[in-house]
Request: fold
Amino acid sequence: MRLLLGTDEAGYGPNLGPLVVGATAWQVPDEIAPEGMYDALAEAVCCGPPAADDPRLAIADSKQLYKPGTGLAALERGVLAALALLHRQATCWRQVWACLDERLDDAWHAHLWHDGYDEPLPIDCCGQDLAAATERLADGCQRRGVQLVGLQAAVLLPGQFNDEVQRCGNKAEVLSLTTLTLARRLIAAAAAERVVVLCDKHGGRAYYAALIQHVFPDELVRVRHESAQLGVYELPFEGRQVEFRFLVGGERMLPTALASMTAKYARELAMRPFNAFWQRHVPGLRATAGYPGDARRFLGEIRRVQRRLKIADRELWRER
Reply:
């Protein structure tokens, strides 16, 4: 058996809202290659939006499963089914964060737009559909000897993000270090001698050895391959042999696809109290997803209230 990890992010480009990195961990038989997981779980999982008569669970790049205005059902079904497989039930907004990021504490819930906020989950997915999806995923994994053993997220609110950008010098390094630190936590928690970590390439970055060395300072990182399409790095870590693969289009791998869904779902959940907070203070305010352009429109419309509430720009607006 070996451990396959997948990582991906949501919210790297926006000016408003958090950056979220998701990661999933799977124990799989040696004969199942990372690119073969969709074939192995084909009876339970499909790699894109399913046809109307297809009962399988969609696990795919979040961009395939979610568009603004289409609802969260497809993301929600996959992420909450995966959490249920790990015996982590999230029946409301406040609970889901403990399931996703164990580092979040009372300060997260006391944050200005989180304070007092809650709503039941699932939001758009039918509970009966979710139960069926969970059962199908569990059966499919059991048939092939596959086990989901981890699903986590790292969430950086704008103030934290700005602190990290100032410390690191650029946001690309923040993304990479956040991803690698999250991967390290999952690797350390797993009982596996061999680990493969699958990461979607981070923007235009081509070289990752120095960043991996920074997160694993006591190990020797070896470069196995570096090109525009793929970077492969190896290192020993606590008795495990670990291989990192940074590849273009990493979401085509099932572990990374579920990480993409997890990150996007968490970010969309985080934007709900943010928008609700400002809409209470500015009647008629249109919600934002936080991306450039619309984020400036939103900031202009809330500016007067922001100043009255004495909310600093750095706690609201993510610097680049």
Summary: The chain has one domain: 2-271. The CA atoms of residues 226 and 232 lie 6 Å apart.
